[in-house]
Structure formats: structure tokens, C-alpha cells
What does this fold into?
Amino acid sequence: MFVGTQYPIKSDTDYEVLAQLGVNHINGFPPGPATTWTADVLSAYREKVESYGIKVEMVALPIGTKPEDGQSPNITLGISPERDREIEICQDIIRACAATGIPAVKYRLFIIGITRTQSKPGRGGAMRSSFNWDEAEQDEPPGVWGTVSADEYWERIDYFLERVVPVAEEYGVRLACHPHDPHTPDGYRGVSRVLGTVDGMKRFVQMHESPVHGLNFCQGTVSEMLDDPAEEIFDVIRWFGEREKIFNVHFRNIAGKRLAFEETFPDEGDVNMIRAAETYRDVGYKGMLMPDHAPRISGENADTVAFAYCYGYIRAVLQAINALDV
It folds into this structure.
């Protein structure tokens, strides 16, 4: 296993810093809109990143609910024929990745984005992103998507997978899907978040079964689905890991449980992260462990500093369990 990152690159200096911190594998950020990511564009980008001693392990498919940010909303909204064109863009990116040696893509099938309530102070006053159902606006109306039942959501997911998994399989590119963050009761804002439970995730990876169809396994998000993450998370890692469905890991920790949690630094949450890393090792996982969200700290370049702390922590954990592969 090795340390990875999806932290946005603001300048070429960021690549130098990552290499200096021992982060030699990344989820990449190719230039320009995703619609322009041809094999030539991705090849030039990969060569540039590799010049810093860093490998591009995956890029993100442009699926989301913010078209102003270049995302494709109609895949999850189920609106045709627009979603067919958006799926074609995803297929083209998969082919371009295969042509340029990028082994995976990650994506999210969200309708509602990441939902949080008021942040809470943590260690030394660092602010933790939090979600407490009792503090949420439980009667908040649906957005533009209207009401989406579980059956309707599954139909849209099936429609996407039916058209994308065969292309990924043909070209040997892994598809890593992020679960819904966080779990919310069915019907919240009109939506049943079907990938917000472990059972939903299990159903998902068994649809259109393929060695290239799996998860961007966000350990923090999965912990947010559990009543006792400190005990339950390891069995969940084993279930997906033993079936080789974990293609990337967001290695983050939480304090709390389902519907009442705070996102912490990796060393201060409820989950034993050394035991978690040992579990990934034992099921044969050999990919990236990367920070995802980190508490907001004081000072200049706060996000960079917080993530640097997480990189060092992950390297130390992997060294401690003899699983660091640079």
C-alpha cells in the first residue's frame, strides 16, 4: 500500500511538495474541462506529473449535480437524452485513460451532495465537519430532482452501470464509486440514499459484476453508516476487500456513529486506524490510502498543513505494519 492524495493542485510547486512529503501516487486533476480529456491531453498530463516522481493512479469522472463546475447532473437525475451524452463522455474518458496508462477512474452517483450541520470544535479548537440528525433541517424540501424513490435511484444506477462497466472491462480500467455521504433516513429531501448503507453498497458491487467494478472505499463515510464503527468497520473492510472491490481508500476517522458524528484527524477518532490498515493489508489491498476531509486548523495554508499531517500519519502507520510501498 502507499500514501495517495486527491488534494487539488494549485501550482507546480504542489507537486514538488507532495514528492517531498513522500506522496508519490495521486488522484489526478488533468487540465481543462473533462470533455476535452483526450488521450493526448491525458498523456501530456501524466508525463508532467511523472516528471516529479508521482504516478497518476486515477482521475475523476465528471458526474455530479453542479453543471456550473463542469459536472454532469443528468446521469443521476435520470433525464434523457442528456444522460446518454454524459455517459458517452465517461466512456470516452475511460478509453483515454486506457490509452495513456491511467489504471482507474473514480466517481460519485450523488443526487444530494455531502450534507453537514454546524461544525464542532475539536482538538485545540480545530473545527470538525459534523452531522447531527437532530440539528438537521429534516423537513427541508426536495431540490430540482423532486422525489426519488429507492427503486428509481437503483434504476438510474443500473442504467449507468449497464453502459459503462462493459467499456471499462473491455479497456481494463477500474471504476471506483464513492458511497453516499452521509447516511440519512429514507425520504430526506425527497431522496432515498441507496448507497448510504452497507447493504446498499453490497448490492451495488454485485450489479453488473466485473473485476473492474468496485469502490472508492471512503472509510469515513462507511463509518458514518454504522451504529458502532469502532467495532463494525473491520468486518465491512473484510467483506469488500476479500471480494477485491476496494480500488481506493479514503483513510479518515470519525468520532460518533450513524446520524451523529464529527470528522476527526486520523489519530483521534473512534476507529483504531492501525487495525484498519492491518485489515486492508490482510485482505490483499495494494492501492492508495489517502486523506479525505481534515479538520479546519488555524493559520495560513491551513488545508495544506492539515493534509501534510495526515500524509505523515499514514506513512507512519504503513511503516509500522510493514506495508508501505513507495
